[in-house]
Amino acid sequence: MADPYRPDQYPEVVTHPVHGVGDAHGYYARIDNDTHKEASNENDTHKEARSDNETGKEVAPQYYPAQYQNGQYLNGSNGVVEKAPWVAAAAPGAHHDGSADLPQPVSTAPTAWWKRKRIWVSAIVALLVIIIAVVVGCVVGLKKSSSPSEPAQGDSAGSSPGPNGTTTNAKSLCRGTTCNPLFSAERFNDQIHLFARGDDDAYWTRVHDGKSWVGDWLSLGGKFQSQPDSMVWGRVRSRMSLMGVSTNGTMMMKYYYTNNTWDSDWFTLNATTNSPVTSCYVPWGNPFDHGDLYARSPVNTVQGLMRGTIYGEGDENYKNVPDPDHTCLWETFDRGGSVGSSVAVVCRDSNLAQDMVMYQRGTGSVAHLQWKDGGLTSWTDRGGAFAGEPVLAALSTTDPDNRVDFFGTGQDRHIHHFTWTKSGNYTPMEDIGGDFQSVPTVLTTSSGRYDLLACGTDDRLKHRAYVGGQWAADWEDLGYFCNSAPYAFPLSSSTYQIGVFVLGEKNDIQFATWEVSSDISWKKMSTFESIQGKMTGAWMASEA
């Protein structure tokens, strides 16, 4: 696999008004205009029955509207003063003695104006209290929904900034598990080729020319259960290989050539496995020109390491293999370990040295093994209890001390680290903290510098740098939602630009860039944007 960590290659409310209530109208005691006191009985609106001067007959009591004062009527709807209408006319044949043919006077006394006013005021106050309570409740609710919060143990996290900087209430696919890497990328023919598995289980690719994305996603077909793996190899790096584990467990491969064409079909690598496949290539210039593939043996009684070889034209065995371009020869090694994960591998530019780490079956401890001097060492158990897949990186593939660094997400959700060198052997296992639900991606951006990215248990993307032998003070929150383990890859060796990839809420791929600088922080990373696609968030986990 082309090593993305090689510095020698990649230096680089609207509120609504509440309407009021109209005035009530009724009958009120008439107020004398001269004295502003209650009128006397002879002027009272409710007069006793009296005799008609012309007929000598008694007439019924007479009533006036409450708005009537001194013969005038106040129209409450428009404020116009009018002549008062006659409200209650005399009934013919009415008698003062209250006989049956007389109309009876109004039996209910009018309610005092101040009592009715108090009722309406009370109603209005109650209505206002209800409205204020509703508004306050809405405002508080909105504030809570828009503010990030720390989740309680076992609860879902609060809202997080989305990939484009907006707030999202989505839950990451990594919740309750440890996400493994989903993507792979290679630099070939001066372009970056990104690979991912679609929701149709086919492998898909899209190309970046170092400045922008070129064309649309291209389906490469196939039916796979594993995430893709890739490498550039062959004489003068003349081909790029894409590999994966099919839905029936068979390892498959397809080539891409310098004339920008793909093989028309996938071909089998003549082996089955129950773990993802990883690849490694020693650059041409070495007497041997071949690619190495690693996977876990599917035979449960062995649980050994499988190593396959793809021969290139520079290898002495090339001419002895029928159809060498489409042949892989496998061997299984039992070196004392019980392989319980995929194998992470780093290849050297010299001496055919290769370093591998895996997690032990059953315990989850990490073990280290090397290929050197034409053979494999035994597994060395370094302890710990890990989840997901292991990560192995080198600050330089030309380092004479052959330094390699292991990084893994523990079952305690912290990321742990150790170093091996030829001169100093192993460093103690180091807890570099955090609280994570994904495997980290590790990037070498300059000599002596590592940059780690991982998805926190709050669904946010986190970063920490290792520079000059020292870790940054703490993990920094980059403020973006992560729906998968992140992936990082150098986009350009001339501008020191890094591409960062995560799965979006809609299973598209989100992409951002970061310029390599001496700044230990990644706060100047660009905003994520969608590069489309419809990918799966599932990954192949090694069977226990």
Secondary structure tally, helices = 1
Which range does the strand content fall in? 25-35%
Low-confidence stretches: 1-108, 142-158
Question: In whole angstroms, how far apart are the ends?
Answer: 26 Å
Helical proportion?
under 10%
Number of strands: 37
Radius of gyration: 42 Å
Largest sheet: 5 strands, antiparallel
Mean pLDDT: 76
Overall shape: it is globular
Secondary-structure class: mainly beta
InterPro entries: PLL-like_beta-prop (IPR058502)
Keywords: Membrane, Transmembrane, Transmembrane helix
Protein name: PLL-like beta propeller domain-containing protein
Outline of this structure?
Residues 330-538 form the PLL-like beta propeller domain. This protein is mainly beta and 544 residues long. It is built from one helix and 37 strands.
Task: Please explain how this structure is put together.
With 544 residues, the protein is mostly beta strands. It contains one helix and 37 strands. It has one helix at residues 113-146, and strands at residues 50-51, 58-59, 72-75, 80-83, 160-161, 167-168, 184-188, 191-197, 203-208, 213-219, 229-233, 239-245, 250-257, 267-272, 278-281, 290-296, 305-311, 328-333, 344-347, 354-359, 366-372, 375-376, 380-381, 391-393, 404-409, 415-421, 425-426, 430-431, 441-446, 449-455, 460-467, 470-471, 476-481, 487-492, 497-503, 509-515, 529-530. Strands 19, 20, 21, 22 and 23 form a five-stranded antiparallel β-sheet that branches. Strands 24, 25, 26, 27 and 28 form a five-stranded antiparallel β-sheet that branches. Strands 29, 30, 31, 32 and 33 form a five-stranded antiparallel β-sheet that branches. The radius of gyration is 42 Å and the shape is globular. It starts with 49 loop residues before the first strand and ends in a 14-residue tail after the last strand. Residues 1-108 and 142-158 have low confidence and may be disordered. Residues 156-171 have a biased composition (Polar residues). Residues 1-58, 145-171 are annotated as: Disordered.
